[in-house]
């Protein structure tokens, strides 16, 4: 039932220290994690100095209207795609005016979305001013487990990027 | 470390059933819970039919730019105020185009915000087309405990409103 625990909070605190040291800020755009990554950042006392906010875009309409993912990407590539998650991260970076933004979009199940993606497919993107990096994962397990693993991997990707 | 558990997920599932039955949708705007309320909704399989998204507005700038909370409210009443949380809920309802929106803004500590509000002060608002309802709470305990209690109370307020 837990989508983040003590290990993730500790990792988020380390990320926060590095962010503060470098004077950079972060925001998130979340689909399948539903705000869990953001909640993990906010669990760190004083996080408001480096974490600016999150857009939980659980429906395509919101990905489009709020984050600016194009109609074309959603129609041709789908919500669980490299193109969509990259556009979500770039959109979050723009609306929250942060140095860095991380986005996740995946299929946590139990049901699929009618596309070719198996349940457990998750895309994670990190957007910076000069690049957007994406990674694809295929996780196994329950809905909560897939969401937990997504948060763990997103934290690792951010850590790699800032150290 | 857990800001929502099995009890809250069960409550969220009940809310989802009632929402589906009535054909209504919900969105959230969160400050101190940082997306935890939203993550709790997304933990319910199939929640995309009634939960549309969340704006985690952890900084005043985002409350203003994304949710449309006025400069005046933030300056004169502060982020942890009835006026601010009501404007956040109304803003979420507008940007996510939902029938109902719930907003939370509070001081989870460990430090205060320099205002008269003691740590543990939390405002929760529910916006509907014809009314916006607000409640004030004063919770005791750790940062995580205050955030957990906030999620519990927000779920209760939503439940009261839809049954």
Summary, kept brief:
The structure is a homodimer of 163-residue chains. By secondary structure, chain A is α/β, with parallel strands linked by helices.
How does the SSE layout of this entry go?
The structure is a homodimer of 163-residue chains.
Chain A: H1 6-22, E1 26-30, H2 36-42, E2 51-57, H3 60-65, H4 71-76, H5 82-96, E3 100-106, E4 121-127, E5 132-138, H6 143-162
Parallel strand pairs in A: 1-2, 1-3
Antiparallel strand pairs in A: 3-4, 4-5
Walk me through this protein's architecture.
The structure is a homodimer of 163-residue chains. Chain A has one domain (6-162): Alpha-Beta Complex (Maf protein). In chain A, 44% of the residues lie in helices and 20% in strands. Chain A has helices at residues 6-22, 36-42, 60-65, 71-76, 82-96, 143-162, and strands spanning 26-30, 51-57, 100-106, 121-127, 132-138. Chain A is α/β, with parallel strands linked by helices and 163 residues long. The first copy, chain A, has a 5-stranded mixed beta sheet, with helices on both faces. In chain A, helix 1 (6-22) runs parallel beside helix 6.
């Amino acid at each position: 039932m837990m989508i983040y625990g003590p290990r993730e909070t500790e990792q988020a605190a380390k990320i926060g220290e590095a962010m503060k040291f470098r004077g950079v800020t972060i925001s998130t755009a979340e689909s399948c994690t539903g705000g869990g990554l953001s909640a993990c950042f906010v669990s760190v006392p004083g996080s408001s100095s480096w974490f600016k906010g999150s857009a939980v875009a659980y429906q395509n309409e919101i990905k489009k209207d709020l984050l600016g993912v194009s109609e074309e990407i959603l129609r041709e590539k789908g919500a669980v795609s490299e193109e969509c998650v990259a556009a979500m991260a770039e959109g979050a970076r723009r609306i929250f005016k942060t140095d860095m933004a991380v986005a996740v979009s995946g299929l946590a199940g139990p049901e699929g979305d009618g596309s070719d993606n198996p349940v457990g497919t998750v895309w994670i993107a990190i957007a910076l001013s000069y690049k957007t990096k994406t990674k694809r994962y295929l996780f196994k397990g329950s809905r909560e487990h897939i969401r937990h693993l997504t948060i763990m991997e997103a934290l690792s990707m951010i850590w790699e990027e800032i150290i």
